[in-house]
Amino acid sequence: MEAIKKFVIIGPESTGKSTLCAQLALHFGTNWVREYAREYLEKNGTEYEFDNLLSIAKGQIDLENSAMLQTKNSSSNKIFIDTDMYVMKVWCEYVFHKCHNWILNQIAERHYDGYLLCNVDLPWVKDELREYPDVETRNKLYHFYKDILVNQSVPWIDISGTYDERTNKAIEFVNQI
Question: 125: which of 13, 44, 132, 138 is 20 to 30 A away, CA to CA?
Answer without folding.
Answer: 44
